[in-house]
Design a protein that fits this description.
single chain; two-stranded antiparallel ribbon; about 30% helix; flat
């Protein structure tokens, strides 16, 4: 789709470490959010794969049961996290409808957060996603809460960070 944000993780050498062709990041955000593969074993030799669209499921639940406490989208797949170059940093988002069923809030748990480069982009992306889901569900936008597991600043970002802080 001509998106280059993760190009450094999609090189021939990096992908080869996981048995993938160049450019194939494996099971990452889009697949996990929109086409999670849930293997339902019907017997030892006959697994059936169910595909789960987590985004559609959350939107449907917001519309039909706004008090639901299961308005969660998971980005962490323990079966595949060691089989990809870069396992998802955004491991879970949870939506909550508040203010008498009129306002949509979103909380993101991010296991790994690049404070200078990634986090500003992440804030903008999830704020936009919250607006989009709220619009589809005919709700006002509430709060966005961002929680970090491992927040870090890379040494090669120090100069840019100092310049940004001066501004």
């Amino acid at each position: 789709n001509n998106v280059h944000i993760w190009d450094s993780w999609a090189t021939k050498e990096q992908c080869a470490k996981f048995g993938r062709k160049e450019g194939d990041l494996g099971t990452v955000y889009g697949k996990l959010w929109r086409r999670w593969e849930n293997v339902q074993a019907q017997g030892w030799d006959d697994p059936t794969i169910e595909h789960i669209d987590q985004i559609a499921r959350v939107i449907e639940r917001i519309k039909t049961n706004p008090n639901c406490r299961r308005l969660i989208v998971s980005g962490w797949d323990p079966a595949n996290c060691d089989k990809v170059s870069l396992p998802p940093c955004h491991t879970m988002m949870q939506f909550k409808v508040s203010h008498g069923g009129t306002r949509l809030n979103c909380q993101l748990y991010q296991r790994s957060a690049d404070i200078f480069l990634g986090v500003p982009f992440n804030i903008a992306s999830y704020a936009l996603l919250t607006h989009m889901v709220a619009q589809v569900c005919n709700l006002e936008v509430g709060d966005f809460v961002h929680t970090f597991g491992d927040a870090h600043l890379y040494l090669n970002h120090l100069e840019q960070t100092q310049e940004q802080l001066k501004r």
